[in-house]
């Protein structure tokens, strides 16, 4: 506690503003537990960058922690690109303080002699990724906490290729940041180096979304779309993209259309949570819509609901959406001619069905660690292989490579194209999904996410991972474990022979068990939230579409048995 108290007292010097100092003084005098949580560690870069609760302290998002990160990034950019006129672009979302924090970040860059393009108003994360290359910038920043609760904010760093930072840049940037004291931050802005941007980049981005996501589906006028931005940034792009692609029958949920960092109409602005789409689904049932789409605050994730076999709206999981989007893109590519060197992409905790799908079309499925930064890295590392599309289970997808992060703007259009095309052919989005199960195997996934907050929670998560490694699971639902993949050591173990082989993938704190019957279980602490996540994938053959309900029920029962057996809930 003494170290924590000394750390807190270091924020009482004249370098820090009076409001910050008063906040720290109050905590020292009145709230020891809160003080501990704010100063027991520094915020770290995870799979999505730097994200945390706003407030004073080293373990919080504030002008000083972001200023220090920006100063470190400025120092690194100068080393990476010596004797170069450096340029960065900055965007921000609807969250509290995002605009003022973005301005602070811009001022620090400018104080270091770096040209800054700052969006004049909130914009989507995919537009920021696009803008990095469009404006020929060396880096990009977006101020967002994605789908986290209102008290959170964050800081995502993008590199010259438009993708989020990956090794070796990330480690070198972190080293630069860690070498600094807060007093090293240059806050004195050079206003002549800060340029506000907006419409020109918007126009280029929207045109690119339509070009990449529009496949001229038939009878768009007969396809009814309900869209909600969940109080986030997508309202700045999605409606216009749908309009330009020819969708005239679009209903926008007005009570959720205004950007608002309080997210007043939802418990969580996360389209992975069914409640987030409840208002939109109710409207869809009222007007007989074909599809519902909702996006998170920075518009990189999308939730999709379509009519099931009973005609009721059903929310698809991220794996289902990914399979349908990938198959549709592969069909379009096949019509033009597949050369065989193309690739699609997925992640280690997403559905294995992506491999089956890719194999059927004669293309490669590259599998990355969780996070779209790794998919963006693949595009950069394999320029000779055209990238068709790819995604991950957490409701994210990327169409082509013009955006190098998950992109709910173009993916929203693509989902509508899939549904409109299916309807025009006398089918539906959901029926076409079932046909995929017939053709490539019926894969079903389940995610269990456990929240463990604070210092104690971090220790609990750490211990849970240790327990799974030291006391390995031997079977799942009666099926023997045949392979254990430990990404912390980048090794794969054949349980029967004991043979260990290296995994050609960067190290990460993920443990995956694979059973004889194809059942797969992964355990992974979140890189951006105080959570540990368990991913389950099971599968069975589906001989014909008429058997869907029966096999679906069997798979549901299997998942229930597994959860009871492993006592994870």
From TrEMBL:
Keywords: Isomerase, Magnesium, Metal-binding, Phosphoprotein. InterPro entries: A-D-PHexomutase_a/b/a-I, A-D-PHexomutase_a/b/a-I/II/III, A-D-PHexomutase_a/b/a-II, A-D-PHexomutase_a/b/a-III, A-D-PHexomutase_C_sf, A-D-PHexomutase_CS, Alpha-D-phosphohexomutase_SF. It holds the Pfam family PGM_PMM_I. Its cofactor is Mg(2+). Its EC number is 5.4.2.-. The keyword Phosphoprotein applies. GO terms for molecular function: isomerase activity. Belongs to the phosphohexose mutase family. This is Phospho-sugar mutase. It comes from Arenibacter antarcticus. The lineage of its organism: Bacteria, Pseudomonadati, Bacteroidota, Flavobacteriia, Flavobacteriales.
